[in-house]
Amino acid sequence: MRHELQPIHGTETRRGHHQVKDTTYNGACTRTALTKSITPEEVRDLLTGFVAAIELDQIRVDALPPEKFHRWYSDNMWRNWRRNHIEQINRLLSSVNTIPPSLLKELAWLAISYEPAFVRQALLRLFAEAASGSCAAEEPNTTAAFFGWLIKDVSDTPARKPLNIDARALMMQWLAVTDPLSIAEDPECGYGRPAGFVS
Prior knowledge:
Layout (H helix, E strand, L loop, with lengths): L10 E4 L2 E4 L3 H8 L8 H23 L12 H19 L7 H13 L2 H17 L10 H13 L11 H6 L27
Antiparallel strand pairs: 1-2
Helix pairs in contact: 1-4, 2-3, 3-5, 4-6, 5-6
């Protein structure tokens, strides 16, 4: 069943602007002493890192010999899948500077309160829905709206005790350097993740 996205409780979105009111996780964030919050520049670093990793992944796949691929591998489908993600991320990059401080604070809380691998999977799900145009509700075309969806999606799961670690360092772990869209895990790809690379 496709994951249904619901707007953040207590949040309004008007003309692309994400306005965060009081939420359970926002209250937890307020009570947590953060050593460093997230900045728009750091969100931009995350998004541009995704673009670079996707482009590098396409270059790597293009260099593989034909025998590495499953006989049902669709080059056009996966090439378009990468391209759609890059186009979606580039749209988000255009509105990074409009993220309100309250949402940046919630992103910092998210980073220190959930395992990076767990947030990464949620982020990939949302990217996939946005890139394919299959969002169940209003499509998150701004950075604030998109990360608002991420916060709601992840915070539906109980958080761990917040870590006293730099939030930016944990947030950057949401990006997998190798196979950033987990395409290699599809059984009809066949080439697998490259040996010696780390996520």
